């Protein structure tokens, strides 16, 4: 959701947010919280952005998918 680099995967979203040009209210809200604002500033750095993204993908890959037994169907309460 970054109009400046719609065809690229990069950290420019965070630059846009810092310039108060985000598309959504939630983008602007990131700057109203000091902790979130610090994260926005940190992830504006392209190297830090890719490092954090890679780490998050590793963590997501480690999440085990919950599955139900095949015969359970759509029983409520599982």
TrEMBL record:
PROSITE patterns: PEROXIDASE_4. It is an enzyme of class 1 (oxidoreductase). SUPFAM superfamilies: Heme-dependent peroxidases. Keywords: Calcium, Heme, Iron, Metal-binding, Oxidoreductase, Peroxidase. Residues 1-78 form the Plant heme peroxidase family profile domain. One of its GO terms (biological process) is response to oxidative stress. Signal peptide: none annotated. This is peroxidase. The lineage of its organism: Eukaryota, Viridiplantae, Streptophyta, Embryophyta, Tracheophyta.
């Amino acid at each position: 959701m970054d109009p400046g680099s719609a065809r690229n995967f990069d950290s420019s979203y965070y630059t846009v947010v810092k310039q108060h040009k985000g598309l959504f209210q939630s983008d602007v809200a990131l700057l109203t919280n000091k902790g979130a604002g610090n994260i926005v500033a940190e992830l504006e750095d392209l190297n830090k952005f890719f490092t954090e993204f890679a780490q998050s993908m590793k963590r997501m890959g480690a999440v085990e998918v919950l599955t139900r037994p095949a015969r359970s169907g759509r029983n409520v309460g599982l």
